[in-house]
Design brief:
alpha/beta; two-stranded antiparallel ribbon; 6 helices; binds zinc ion; metal ion binding; N-alpha-Ac-DABA_deacetylase; metal-binding; hydrolase
Length: 245
């Protein structure tokens, strides 16, 4: 697994950036490599750990899943000692995430999907952890953010002092913004002017087809496209529904 572990010129907090948990999500992988180049000279405070392709076997096979055991790495956080993908994720949590204040997990549309810039920052119940996630959400530049009750993964990482955010975009440039904004949130680089905060939703649903229409309180964040995209192809209209009280 490729690793860029960069110490800044001044002391400060640690940011973990991962991409390629889904092995076929290329814009986020590209952005992670670009950030490793940008910050290679240590022109920041703290420690920047970048794992640009977590699921190397999936990347090689062109699949979201890890073809070795058929599991999605994102669903195996915080990992365990049993099985290839759970062991991989356990190692990432123990060796990297538990030393980090923030884990920015970059995702983009897999093959046959389209996605709007959005992020998941679930509630851990630990005030300082959740405040950090909210601070990042406000400046992330996403259209929509989802904040649901935290899973085991969110709560386990919170115990280690790490805020977990999953950020989506089809666009490599937006992924670069996510990384910069995460570093600004932690005070690793100077802040720039704030961005309009996104709408926050508390419930989502995966949609299988373009005909699927969101119901009350649900948000459409991505959809399957009928034909696999070719370079320059128009993928369709962005659509989302606001949550209703
Ligand atoms: Zn993904």
């Amino acid at each position: 697994m490729p690793i860029a572990d960069i110490l800044g010129l001044k002391p400060g907090p640690t940011l973990l950036v991962t991409a390629g948990l889904d092995g076929d999500e290329y814009p986020s992988i590209e952005a992670a490599y670009a950030a490793a180049e940008t910050y290679n000279g240590g022109n920041f405070s703290g420690r920047l750990i970048i794992l640009p392709i977590v699921n190397v076997a999936g990347f090689d096979a062109g699949t979201s899943k890890n073809p070795i055991d058929g599991k999605y790495p994102k669903y195996c956080i915080p990992g365990s000692l049993f099985g290839t993908t759970p062991r991989l994720m356990r190692r990432i949590v123990q060796d990297y995430a538990r030393h980090a204040s923030l884990w920015l997990d970059l995702h983009s549309a897999a093959q046959g999907e389209t996605v709007i810039p959005c992020l998941w920052n679930n509630i851990s119940g630990v005030a300082a952890i959740d405040a950090r996630g909210e601070a990042f959400t406000r400046v992330s530049g996403v259209v929509a953010a989802v904040r649901e009750q935290g899973s085991t993964a969110t709560r386990t990482l919170a115990k280690y002092g790490c805020t977990y955010v999953l950020a989506e975009s089809e666009d490599e440039e937006q992924h670069g913004h996510y990384i910069d904004r995460a570093m600004q949130t932690l005070g690793m680089i100077p802040s720039v002017s704030s961005i309009r905060p996104p709408r926050v939703f508390t419930k989502t649903r995966d949609l299988e087809t373009l005909e699927d229409i969101p119901g009350e309180g649900e948000v459409l964040l991505w959809k399957k496209v009928a034909q696999p995209p070719h370079p320059g192809a128009r993928l369709g209209e962005i659509a989302y529904e606001e949550i209703t009280e």
